[in-house]
Amino acid sequence: MRRVWTFPADRAALIDEAYLSAREKILFDGDYRRYFSAMFEGEKQRYIDRLVLDDELARIHADVLMLHGRDDPGFPPDSLTLALSRSLPHADVALLAHCSHSIAYEQPSKFLLLANAFFGGEPGSH
Fold first, then answer.
1. Can you list the alpha helix ranges (DSSP code H) found in 1-126?
2. Tens digits of per-residue pLDDT, 11-48?
3. In the chain, what are the helix, strand and coil shares in percent, each to the nearest 5?
4. What's 117's DSSP letter?
5. What are the sequence ranges of the domains in the chain?
6. Distances in whole angstroms, Cα of residue 50 to Cα of each of 1, 33, 54
7. At a CB cut-off of 8 Å and minimum separation 6, what does 101 contact?
């Protein structure tokens, strides 16, 4: 739980080299550290406790598409997206292979294909 909503102390604290390369510019440029730390200050468990919404989720009857990187070590799909999807009556889950946390960045073609199909658009029409 310590890695969730906690600003990384340095390069070694991030998930892996590919993730580090993609996120490093955002994390260490400018004043992002102060912004991020203020957004998630204090005890982290309180954010988790506030997310317990099983009754509310069960009342959602809209179609839902949830995308998750199958290889996300920091946020494993089994304990997050798959668990959450069981509370949503009309949820579909797509686990993307060879993908960790940043789906749209790591697998843009798969992301767009799934999003366009879900929202009824033609692939490449935007």
1. 17-28, 32-39, 45-49, 54-58, 81-85, 103-106, 108-119
2. 666 567 777 777 787 778 778 888 888 988 888 888 77
3. 45, 10, 50
4. H
5. 1-52, 56-126
6. 15, 24, 11
7. 15, 19, 69, 72, 74, 75
